Amino acid sequence: LVRRPFLVEGVEQEADGVTTLQLRAHGHAGTPFRPGQFAWLKLGDERYGLAEHPFSYSSSADHPDRPSFTIRSQAGFSAAADLLHQGTQILVDGPHGAFRLPHRTRGLLLVAGGIGITPCMSILRTAADRGDRRRYLLLYGSRDVGQVVFARELSDLARVLSLEIVHVLGTAPTGWAGESGFVNGDLLHRRLPSDLRKWSAFICGPPPLVEGVMAGLAEVGLPADRVHAERFVGV
Length: 235
Known about the structure:
Layout: E1 4-13, E2 18-25, E3 38-43, E4 53-56, E5 68-72, H1 77-80, E6 89-96, E7 107-113, H2 117-129, E8 135-142, H3 151-160, E9 162-169, E10 179-180, H4 185-191, E11 199-205, H5 207-220, E12 227-231
Helix pairs in contact: 4-5
């Protein structure tokens, strides 16, 4: 795929250290993508070098001319994302990624760790735009309450979709009635529906979470060909 130019239309601060870049297609109608895919981003004025960075789409796939990418500040491009000005040109090389939600899937398990919530948001936003009535279960692991990204919008989506959200906090505040610790096999056994026939799973997060969840899903009998995993790295 060729790199297509987009302009920064908005920069929105999310949870601590997380920024959403809202882009607008420049001189074209946008590039269609599937929820769960990612693209390589590059500043338009960086003519030389391999200064490209992979980020998942966080926006609905129904609006390819207005894609969004939600980025946690770490180093390099991500550390400067919140400093970009409206009108800054971004070259987008994508989409990439093989995830495709099977039409016959009856339910979708989403497991996110930290900024791994980004592609899950694209999946849920697209489902809401399309009036998808299938069941969704989101297991979302965060370090603490302040690190939960999209908390308010997730609550709104739960009122529109058949969506159950389970927050799992590494450090829970006093009085926290939800899950704490880590997303692991024990939690899967407690929270997954008893009948997983025709369910699929999408996992995105750091390698330890992904590997642990994949092992747990194998234990509860979800076939490997219905599990898609994305391991993220800091860039």
